[in-house]
Amino acid sequence: TRPTRGADGCRVARVRVARAAARRFRHWRSAPPDLMPHVRDLLGDRDPQVCGVAVEAAAHGGEPAGTVADELARIAVAGRDTHRGAAQVALNTLVRLAHPGWRAPMLAAWAEGRDPAATDLFDDYPPAFDPEILAAARHRLAAQLATGVRGNPVRVLVGLLGGWGPDAAVAVGDLMTALSLAPAGVPAALAGIGPAALVAVPSLLVAARSGDVQAGHAVLRLTGDPGPLVAAARALLAADGQRLAWDLGLIADAGPEAGCLIALLRDRLTGVADQGRWARAEQIGAARVVWRATGDSSLVLPTVRAVLLAGDLPVRAAAAICSST
Questions:
Q1: How far is CA 323 from CA 128, 149, 280, 290, in A?
Q2: pTM, entire model
Q3: What pLDDT, on a 0 to 100 scale, did the predictor assign at position 136?
Q4: Of 64, 219, 241, 245, whose Cβ has the fewest other Cβ atoms within 10 Å?
Q5: Phi, psi of 149 (to 5 degrees)
Q6: Residue 242: Cβ-neighbour burial (10 angstroms; 0-12, 13-18, 19+)
Q7: CB of 183 within 8 A of CB of 213?
Q8: 64: Cβ contacts below 8 Å, ≥ 6 apart
Q9: pLDDT tens-digit series, residues 213-260
């Protein structure tokens, strides 16, 4: 091929350098500290392609990327996309690094009515409590609910508020509004806040009576009463729903009070592993409920062993039961 010359050739060379750095960061843990100064230079490049590839390289740099966090923050603030582009990759990296540089672009996005994809990282990289972020998150949540935004953008903010526990007590009213409009994750968030959320118990009881296991579990956490959780579980199991493994994990926390549910769970404890992995996950969930309700491992171990032999995702949960019985 004909060699590339002039300014374009320099740009291609700089892109290659950034891509080479990214490859080394992915494969050699010792590489980032030595190469990050070069990445810093490329992050300041005026060519958007060079800068974008450098941002991707920094994203693979792990903790040493903290040395270029100021440059990433500058790039993140300048962006307006919510799901792609160098600005969003920079913002993602700042959130993972727990660097305060994520705050300004996030606050700006929320103020403009945008929900950056980086908020999805809050589940695994929860930010420390911050009164300014609390106020902005409450304002954005209210705007989401008022304008019909639903799904993950709402769930993320609900989880953020709940994760701050009693520090987010002022947000109980916002969460109660969300409970009626976009309830996913709200009961757990209310329970996470603690005593200040006791005012939500009547609303949670209504939801539990209709089979909302998360609401019943929140009542258990807030009051210590397992009755609503058991009632919600009975309604859910009677409806013969699908993919109930997560709910069964919550139901198990009812302990001996869940003994009345054993008859509804027997068809999952056959001693034979079901064909689908989701069905096997439900078998393990049912086993956990019955074991914690009765303390009798003989009722569950044949099924647990069968699921272990079948392999795939439910194996970890099955092994956990085996190790604790």
A1: 34, 43, 18, 16
A2: 0.86
A3: 98
A4: 241
A5: -70, 135
A6: exposed
A7: no
A8: 32, 33, 36
A9: 999 999 999 999 999 999 999 999 988 767 899 999 999 999 999 999
Count of alpha carbons within 13 angstroms of residue 205, beta-carbon side = 10
- Specify the residue for token string 């995702």: 313
pLDDT < 50 positions in the chain: 1-7
Rounded to an integer, what distance in angstroms lies between the CA atom of residue 272 and that of residue 283? 10
Task: Please say whether the beta carbons of 305 and 287 come within 8 A.
Answer: no
End-to-end Cα distance, the chain: 67
Dist CA 164 CA 147 (whole Å): 25
Residue 310, class by beta-carbon neighbours within 10 Å (0-12 exposed, 13-18 middle, 19+ buried)? Answer: middle
Instruction: For residues 115 and 145, give the distance between their C-alpha atoms in angstroms, rounded to a whole number.
Output: 13
SS (H, E, C) 281-324: HHHHHHHHHHHHHHCCHHHCHHHHHHHHHHCCCCHHHHHHHHHH
